Amino acid sequence: MIRTLALICCDCKQEFTPKDKIYYRDNFLSKDIKDAQLICDTCIAKWQEKWKISKADFQEKDYVLRVTITLENGTVLENLDCTPLETTVITEEEMPLGAQEKLYEYYVQWDTARKEKVLKDCIFEDAFMRTTVTCTTYGGEHYENMAIRFNMKGELETEQEVPDYIRNQIAEAFKLYEAQNID
Ligand SMILES: [Zn+2]
């Protein structure tokens, strides 16, 4: 039996004539071609126009990665769950591949910046009455044989002035170091 299928866009509900290909939305429930969710070229163009990302702020909390996206049209989508995948970042929003790739560029920038402040090594040395640390961040900040001690309040004091993110990491690493050397 030969049947016909009217090309009606599921977004704007208008009948349309496709140019070189037909866009449709994945719909795992549809078993029949007439259930296909077709989308017209005009709606696709609008969709692509909408997804021009001007800013993306990532944050990670309790191992969940989220992103707040600002579009060129001013729309802000807050705290979307997201997952980096190969060269894209996938969110719950339906967005063009180009936008997912753009999001990945923002992700790499953010990920690199946060790693810069992370210590890639941190070595302690105990001498008589003196403990020193030698440490380096991924970004290249380096402290060599810097004397450290914990004051009466349990706060880490360092021979040189160091940023809080360095101080906190040294303190954490030292707890592990002490735990390993307890015997
Ligand atoms: Zn349409």
Sheet with most strands: strand arrangement = 3-4-5-6
Please count the beta strands (DSSP E, at least 2 residues each): 10
Put simply, the count of helices is 3
- Can you summarize the main beta sheet? 4 strands, antiparallel
Q: What does this 3D model show about the protein?
A:
With about 180 residues, this protein is an alpha+beta fold. The chain has 3 domains: about 1-50, no CATH class; about 50-115; about 120-180, no CATH class. Helices cover about 25% and strands about 35% of the residues. It is built from 3 helices and 10 strands; from the N terminus they run ββαββββαββββα. The longest helix is centred in the middle third of the chain and has 20 residues, at about 95-115. The site of zinc ion has 8 residues, from α1.
Offer a concise description of the structure.
This protein has helices spanning 41-50, 97-116, 164-180; strands at residues 23-25, 37-39, 53-61, 64-71, 76-85, 88-91, 119-127, 130-137, 142-150, 156-158. By secondary structure, the chain is of the alpha+beta class.
What tags apply to this protein structure?
10 strands, 4-stranded antiparallel beta sheet, 183 residues, binds zinc ion, elongated
Question: How does the SSE layout of this entry go?
Answer:
Elements: E1 23-25, E2 37-39, H1 41-50, E3 53-61, E4 64-71, E5 76-85, E6 88-91, H2 97-116, E7 119-127, E8 130-137, E9 142-150, E10 156-158, H3 164-180
Antiparallel strand pairs: 1-2, 3-4, 4-5, 5-6, 7-8, 8-9, 9-10
The chain binds zinc ion.
